[in-house]
Structures are given as C-alpha cells and as structure tokens.
Amino acid sequence: MSSTTARGTTHLTRRLVQLYVGLTLYGASSALLVRAELGLEPWGVLHQGLAELTGISIGVVSIIVGAIVLLLWIPMRQRPGLGTVSNVFVVGLAMDGTLALVGDLDGFGLRIPVMVLGIVLNGVATGLYIAARFGPGPRDGLMTGLNRVTGRSIRLVRTAIEVAVVVTGFLLGGSLGVGTVLYALAIGPLAQLFLRVFGLPAPATAPISGPSGSAPTATPGVTAAEQATPVTPAGPDPVATPPSGQAILPQ
Predict the structure, then answer these.
(1) Nearest CA-CA partner of 61 in 184, 174, 157
(2) What are phi and psi of 53, to 5 degrees?
(3) CA distance linking residue 251 with residue 238, whole number of Å
(4) How far apart are CA 81 and CA 134, in angstroms?
(5) pLDDT tens readout for residues 218-240
C-alpha cells in the first residue's frame, strides 16, 4: 500500500511540475514572438492589439482576456480544472517577465532565430501542459463548449474563433506576419510530437476480482489490460481532456 501511495504521489508531483513548467514556457514563447516582431500567434495578435489600445502590458491583457473567456464557460456549463485557472495567470505573468528580461532585437539575424525558437518552444510548452491532464485552457474550453452547444465541428468552431480573434487584433494594431503563418502551420505537428514525448502513463489500477476473490472473468477478444481499465460512462465530459493522440492547444 505504501509503495502504491508513493508512486501516486510521484506521479502527481510530475504532473504538477509539467503543468507549471509548460505554462511558464508558453508565456515565455509568446514573449519571444513579440520581441521577434515578425507576427504573433492568433490570440497574441488580439492581446497585443488590446495592449496598444489600453496601454496595459500584454501579459496583463492576456490575464484579463483569459478571465473573461473563463466567465463565458458558465452558460455553457464547462467546469474548469487546476490547469484552466493556472493558465489564466501563469502565462500572462511569464510573458511579462520574459519581456522584461529580453529587450528589443535589431536585425533579421536575431529576429528570425528568435521567432523560430518561440514557435518551437510553444510546441514544447503545449506538449508539457496538455500531457499533465489538468484541464484545457480557457480559450480551448470556449472552443469545446461552443462545439457541444452549437453542434458544429471543432474545426469550424476553432477556425471561426481564431479568424475573429486575428481580425479584431489586427484592426486594433496587433502584429501579423510570417511568424503568424509559420505558427499556424507548425504548431499542430509540434504539439503532436511533444505530446508523445511528455505523455504520462495513467496511474495503475488494481484488477477487478471475480466472485469470491477469484480472478477476473476473461472476456473473449479483450486483453487483461483492457479489462482492468475502468469504463468511462457515456455522455459529454464537462472538462474536455483530449486523448493522448489528440491535441487541444492551450492559448
């Protein structure tokens, strides 16, 4: 029993470390894209536009937008997880912290490598954060909530949201450029790669015994591992946690 408890504690600790390292790196990667000045990720365009309009730092704008989006979960009956709430604050704080450490960059010789580093680091951060399995970010929850409420496909809902976000951000003064295009093309494959790299095994579960303590009854065509895995009830899950082979990107 004690060894099982110790393994469970270690597993939880690793998940928490992955969560907060991932969120911190996500904020840092977004800040690098800002410093590269070659175009931001879709929500970054909106955050930068609002920052230009209000004079508030882009990290604080990210926190405010995240909190507002989280409020939109309420009518859709989405339930936030630890990762959802942490996303709102940690990403914005890490973004402002990185911008304070990394000054303006001169010349394409610096800006292009920093842009590439920002995109790759964003993929690493995405893999770390999602693989920790503490719930989707507020913007991803908005996407999955609208998907469930409207019945529209994830692809259509996400595209509609991001087009609206990019257009609004650009009109407010946000930065569009080659970095925006490269991010859109690269983030899916990068996230998929790093989800596999940082994927955590599910906690071991004890096999279910048969009557009178006997071994579990064998089911033809079903492996022992499948029989030991609890069956998830049918119906919508209030917190969208993607399977290991799918990526819901934290933004």
Answers:
(1) 174
(2) -70, -40
(3) 19
(4) 6
(5) 444 444 443 443 433 333 333 33
